[in-house]
Amino acid sequence: MLPHYINFSKIGSPSLGYISVAENLENIPFEVQRVYWTYFTPQDVTRGGHAHLALEQVIVAVSGTITFMTEDLEGNRTEFVLDSPEKGLYIPKHIWRDIKFSHNAVLLCLASEKYTEADYIREYDNFLKLKDEH
Ligand code: TYD
């Protein structure tokens, strides 16, 4: 599978506000094992710069705008702009990503595995080597 947007339901109205919902194995294509969020990332900083061996993620910009530049093992590069809390981004394993944030951005991540540093590919050259193995 490739990275793709997920459209969450948007329950409510302009006068009441909205609720969006994520459910295991429903609109989230895996069982969530971990949730984390990032915030106060300066606008001039690029985060990410890694891929994962097994981890799958769904990312939501619950506030602000977050831009993902992704690259898959075929070398396809795609830009995804998360600019609404009803929009998610599914990222399968084996995807290199660089991430930029607006000053007010809060990134919420639903993750398929608990944290382990052993799941990270932090050297781009090692990501390219993964290509040869597949
Ligand atoms: P990292 O995933 O590299 O952040 P980003 O992709 O946003 O640049 O994580 C940054 C640091 O936080 C790294 O030292 C690992 C640590 N960390 C945890 O301890 N647990 C976690 O669940 C996550 C996501 C990160």
Keywords:
134 residues, mainly beta, Jelly Rolls, 1 helix, binds thymidine-5'-diphosphate
Question: Could you write a compact summary of the structure shown?
Answer:
This protein is mainly beta and 134 residues long. Helices cover 7% and strands 46% of the residues. The chain has one domain: Jelly Rolls.
Structural account:
The protein is mainly β and 134 residues long. It has one domain: Jelly Rolls. The protein is built from one helix and twelve strands, in the order E-E-E-E-E-E-E-E-E-E-E-E-H. It has a five-stranded antiparallel beta sheet with strand order 1-9-6-11-4, with no helix packed on it. It has a five-stranded antiparallel beta sheet with strand order 8-7-10-5-12. A hairpin with a 5-residue loop joins strand 7 and strand 8. The two termini are 14 Å apart. The model has no long low-confidence stretch (mean pLDDT 97). The chain binds thymidine-5'-diphosphate. The site of thymidine-5'-diphosphate (TYD) has 7 residues, from strand 4 and strand 5. The site of thymidine-5'-diphosphate has 7 residues, from strand 4 and strand 5.
- Stated plainly, the CATH topology is called Jelly Rolls
Radius of gyration: 15 Å
Full CATH superfamily name:
Jelly Rolls
Order of helices and strands: EEEEEEEEEEEEH
The chain-level mean pLDDT equals 97
**CATH class membership:** Mainly Beta
Low-confidence stretches: none
Distance N to C terminus: 14 Å
| % residues in beta strands | over 45%
Number of helices: 1
What count of structural domains?
Answer: 1
User: What is the total tally of β strands?
Assistant: 12
Bound molecules: thymidine-5'-diphosphate
